[in-house]
Design brief:
Length: 339
């Protein structure tokens, strides 16, 4: 598909501006040498909103839609360490909407939860295990706000709705434009995946305008079958909305792009292998990864390169999706794993 045609389709959707501008693509020279590949990093940890991260791109479309519907309150959900919740609260405040965060887990006054408090969000914490259980609480709280005369806009966990997915299709356009300027072409695009929205956007964007770049989306602990089901649905709903005739990833392509085996026992586990990798990458490249998403995904990338599933000499782009608040949310556990 022509890049300008895709740009035109996206421009039809309401958007707000939350990014500083384009995020840089930088070369990771030391790790490239170590792995025998040519590794670049797309710094979406530097989107500019609050601590940065992939959710900024989704929120440009999600809050664009909220605004077009005259909503004055934004309700979303996630774990207490949720980067998505923090980004949503920051964006909502900036745009004059009330942020309401429905969080799962046990609140401690640190990390992203602490930053959520600084942002003045209405935070409700429930000690439940599964993210799905938050849906009922969200609806209850939505009712409460409606009864109070407010117009709430609901964002699902991770901002992964067809509207949010548009943000990562737009990111692929940005990457392709940068590639043209830098005279680069990537064989692989590697990213963390969890609620599936970033992955769905990458798959749709690559299929439409970057067929030479193979997406490898590394699960960070959620059951692979659940992740696949979520991604399939998001791909289908988003592509039919955008009218991407023919340019839709097949079931086989979605399967191939969804990499399991690097979840270390489940979503949100903090493990020594990942902490060791975070230390090593910080020392080699002056770059921080987080323990919940990018650390696990980067470990997957390194393992795939060492096993030559990513062949030597490949040109690889790792999408740094942010999440650095996680280092502070879990600083005690991480600290105990340091030598
Ligand atoms: C830092 C970071 N990376 C990756 C992801 C995964 O993105 P998605 O939920 O779109 O799969 C998240 C989601 O919360 C995140 O916070």
């Amino acid at each position: 598909m022509d890049i300008n045609k895709l740009k035109g389709r996206l421009a039809e959707y309401p958007q707000v501006e939350l990014m500083w501008g384009r995020t840089p693509i930088v070369h990771a020279a030391n790790i490239s040498r170590e792995l025998g590949i040519d590794l670049f990093i797309k710094r979406d940890d530097l989107t500019g909103l609050a601590l940065g991260g992939n959710k900024t791109r989704k929120l440009e479309f999600l809050l664009g839609e909220a605004r077009s519907k005259n909503c004055d309150t934004v309700i979303t959900a996630g774990a207490v360490h949720s980067n998505h919740a923090l980004q949503t609260a920051a964006a909502a405040q900036k745009l004059g909407m009330k942020p309401v965060l429905v969080l799962r887990g046990v609140a401690e006054n640190k990390g992203n939860y602490f930053l959520d408090r600084l942002l003045g969000a209405d935070i409700r914490v429930f000690d439940v295990e599964a993210g799905g259980e938050l849906k009922n609480y969200m609806e209850e709280i939505q009712g409460e706000y409606i009864a109070g005369g407010k117009r709430p806009y609901l964002i699902p966990v991770g901002g992964s709705s067809p509207t949010g997915v548009l943000g990562y299709i737009k990111a692929v356009i940005e990457i392709m434009e940068q590639c043209k300027e830098m005279n680069l072409a990537f064989d692989y695009l590697v990213s963390a995946t969890s609620s599936g929205g970033t992955q769905a956007g990458i798959l749709l964007g690559c299929k439409a305008i970057a067929p030479g770049a193979k997406p490898l989306c590394i699960g960070v602990g959620d059951p692979r079958e659940e992740l696949l089901a979520d991604v399939r649905l998001l791909v289908e709903e988003t592509s039919s909305r955008l009218g991407l005739e023919g340019g839709v990833p097949t079931g086989g392509e979605i399967e191939e792009a969804t990499i399991g085996g690097y979840g270390f026992g489940g979503y949100g586990t903090i493990v020594k292998e990942v902490v060791d990798l975070i230390r090593s990458v910080a020392r080699k490249e002056g770059l921080y990864l987080d323990p919940v998403y990018t650390g696990k995904a980067f470990l997957g990338l390194m393992d795939l390169a060492k096993r030559e599933i990513i062949p030597p000499g490949s040109r690889v782009l790792f999408l740094h999706t942010g999440g650095l608040g996680g280092l502070f949310q879990y600083e005690d556990m991480i600290g105990e794993m340091l030598p």
